[in-house]
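User: Hey, quick favor. My workstation is busy. Could you predict this chain's structure for me?
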Amino acid sequence: MESCVAEFARPPRVMHLISSSGFLGAENVVLELALQSRKTGLDVQIGVMVNAENPNLELAEIAAKNGFNVTVHQCSGRLDKRVIGVIKGLIHDNGIDIVHSHNYKSNFYAWRALCGTPCKWVITNHGRRSGFRLLLYNLADAFVARHADRVIAVSDRIFRMLRCAGVPDCKVRIIDNGIDTDRFAGRQPPEGLEVSLGIPADALVIGSVGALTLEKGHVYLLRASSAVLERFPLAVFLIIGDGPERAALKKEACKLGISEHVVFAGKRKDIPELLNIMDIFVLPSLQEGLPMAMLEAQAARVPVIASSVGAIPGVLQDGATGLLVPPGNSNNLSSSIIRLLSDRENAGRMAERGFARVKDQYSAEQMARKYLATYHELMSDTKGKP
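Assistant: No problem, here it is.
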């Protein structure tokens, strides 16, 4: 990465901008990219937009603890013109060269704040949540993205979506998400962690990490549980995360008669330790970009089962580094879980191969190297947008 920075006449000043409702996949990418960029000498700042209806300062707090200059923008309503003016002032006063925005709300604010400035603009499209209510936001975001200098897609599927939305191919780059594998490899859980969660010491732990939303497909994991419990009555399903589907998922667990085998742990900050008490990690999503949670599980050497959606089939090699299942298919999910629990030796080999692949191809350093190349490309472009 050092060679990329050496080519800059002056290391660019970069401002990441994100509207955050929790420390999720996109927030993780922002932090990892900021940390890796700073190692190469870039001046990195982070702006976190906070929705008054759902405030969350977790990213801001973690970034500040890591020594970054963090600004928090309290947004009142869907469009806060005052915040646009504040962001514009920060760009000017701090000599920002590149604004890097990360979701539709921050994309819109960046677009308006950048009007009339020479600052370059990069968008990362991490994927979209589903539902008719968000359709208009997605369409508006596609229009806004056409004005950016570069648009980063985290999967081929997202690249195709951007193309269909009218974003010129010459502006789009595909960059895989990456993680700091050292954070997850070999992390031993503290004594008594299972007990604190109500998990018996002899339990087989099938875990999942992610926001409790419809597109994450947790309901299919619950529906797969009965067949698993018939073969492995000591199994416990550990669901980490929170979201609007939590009450419905608890109701489904009760309806299925498995409540005593399901632990809803809520949001947690000790993900590396929690991954290391899992016997299997399951990602039953209906749609994804490139999920950080799956990469983290592989970095922790946990056997992985995931839906064949988004970029997942390109990362998880079925039968070699994990198992792929069709989305929304509880029968396939249960048989895959049973297969791994029945052959722990083979499951361990898959986990080791998955770890090696993630470390080699999906590290935070690899991700940052590609983003830095994009920054360099922009800073070298004296003609502006392609």
